[in-house]
Amino acid sequence: MNDNLHQLRCFGCGVRIRGDQAGSIFRCADCGDLFEVEYPGWDLAGSGGRANTDRPNAGALKWLWRERRASSELLDHSGVWRFRELLPILDSFGHAVTLREGNTPLYHLPRAAKALGVDQLYAKHQGMNPTGSFKDTGMTAALSVAKERGFEWVACASTGNTSAAMAAYAARAGLKSLVLIPQGKIAWGKLSQAMDYGAVTCQLNADFDGCLRVLLTIVQQAPIYLLNSVNPYRLEGQKTPALEIAEYFDWSVPEHILIPGGNLANSSAIGKGFREMKALGLISRLPKISVIQAEGANPLVRSFRANDGEKLEPVQANTRATAIRIGNPASWRKAARVIHETGGWCLDVSEAEIAVSKAELGREGIGCEPASAVTLAGLKKLVAEGKIVPSDTVVLLLTGHTLKDADYTIDFHRGSLLEPGEAEPHLNEIAGLRRDAIEVEATPDAVLKALKGIQSRWV
Ligand code: F0G
After folding, report:
1. Residue 284, strand partner residues
2. By C-alpha distance, which of 199, 126, 155 is closest to 404?
3. Cα gap 432→5, rounded to integer Å
4. 126 CA distance to ligand 1 centroid (A)?
5. Per-residue pLDDT tens digits for 263-282
6. From atom 7 of ligand 1, which residue's Cα is the shortest distance away?
7. How far apart are CA 249 and CA 405, in angstroms?
8. Strand positions, DSSP E, 13-87
9. Which of 42-51, 113-122, 297-306 has the lowest mean pLDDT?
10. 3-state DSSP assignment of residue 193
11. pLDDT over 70 for what percent of the chain?
12. Is the pLDDT of residue 45 over 90?
């Protein structure tokens, strides 16, 4: 049976092509913009073509997806492929390459909720995926397409998480993988993963944007399948956390979702997930989706300030949240559309705000990597500005696992992460959160004495 019901639509000029006509860099031949996957059988926006016999029935889907939770089929154990009716991108779902991604926890954050005066605050932790980041949900989708189309090699440029995910899924599928990363600018945990999973890893003397430029030339010269998020199939997998969130809330939706912004595919994907659910009648309204960037890597924020997200000037990116150290984001138009259509905001947060928020999440027992913590920092600002009110339900999307970048955490607690000028506005918060390891003599008395001394200082 052919499960494949999709086509690609150019986000810029609207031209529609078959999936296998996209070319190696996934840019429209007419206008150069990115593609989006669409399903003509759903006939959502009068996309024309066939009669809408393939349009899924919302009630039947909800029932089916719930039933699959008790299923023993491998595909149903994936939090991506459990929703496969909403991503019919393969000729056969039997070709899906899965590591049981998705099904990530939605944690309540009572302490942060209380501190901010927001009743219902949750963290959807995408760092709890098999390779420790949200990239797994996209990789299972796009790498399965690569495998089905007969590619032997796959490749990506990465700030680390995409490469870890790609290398793992390629290894599962028996494909070879090439990783281009900015030298010295990715966290060790991520680099180690690419090596562990057997990727050919090249460290280039360039930033992420430079690595991607090099890769785009390579894939036009060699039969290598590009797995960066310009590949629209990635977004089909990455939209499924939106479905998980809606299902968790019994198909009502939270008022707000806050998402870190780097190359801006994830916010685009989550927005697409909610948009499609609404069009199919699975939910009745959209959440406000806001994108949070680091101050030093904030091209979309600048674009919204300057021209309401109509034009984007690339920036020279710099932030310790290396996952989102991206100055020329590929999917910015898609993300801008999501912000506009949902009524969300685009804002940036400082290095100290990120560090404090990450430590606060840690104190709730929820570790995450620095890029994820921009969401809590952004929430504080939106609450302070009255854009999020106490009765709102808020979901922060945490994108990566805390062990991805242990150096960052240790530097924070040792007091060596931030420059004095950066830390200055947050000295009290930082003092309350820091937990440096202390050296103590190997006797019970010495440990108890240390404990006494500390109790008076630590809150
Ligand atoms: N959070 C983490 C942990 C990430 O790794 C990334 C992106 C983002 C947020 C931003 O998501 O790019 O879709 O806006 N990491 C990429 C990588 C670029 O190569 O791993 P985005």
Report:
1. none
2. 126
3. 54
4. 11
5. 999 999 999 999 999 999 99
6. 323
7. 31
8. 16-17, 35-38
9. 42-51
10. helix
11. 97
12. no
Q: Which residues contact 409 (CB under 8 A, 6 or more apart)?
A: 358, 362, 367, 402
Looking only at the bridges linking them, the beta strands covering 16-17 and 7-10 are antiparallel
Cβ-contact 323, 159 below 8 angstroms = yes
Whether residue 261 has its Cβ less than 6 Å from ligand 1: yes
Residue nearest atom 15 of ligand 1, based on CA coordinates:
323
Q: What is the pLDDT of residue 55?
A: 85
99-156 pLDDT, tens per residue? 999 999 999 999 999 999 998 999 999 999 999 999 999 999 999 999 999 999 999 9
Residue 51 pLDDT exceeds 80: no
Q: In angstroms, rounded to a whole number, what is the distance separating the alpha carbons of residues 359 and 10?
A: 41
User: Which residue, among 325, 382, 374, 317, has the nearest Cα to 351 in the 3D structure?
Assistant: 374
Strands 224-226 and 153-157: parallel
Instruction: Give the SS3 label for residue 178.
Output: strand
Do 257 and 273 meet the contact criterion of CB atoms below 8 Å apart? Answer: no
Tell me the three state secondary structure of residue 447.
helix
**Which residue among 264, 399, 403 is best mutated to probe the pocket of ligand 1, counting the most ligand atoms within 8 A of its Cβ?**
399
Question: 3-class SS at 398?
Answer: strand
Atom of ligand 1 nearest to the CA of 190: 20
Q: What is the chain's mean pLDDT, rounded?
A: 95
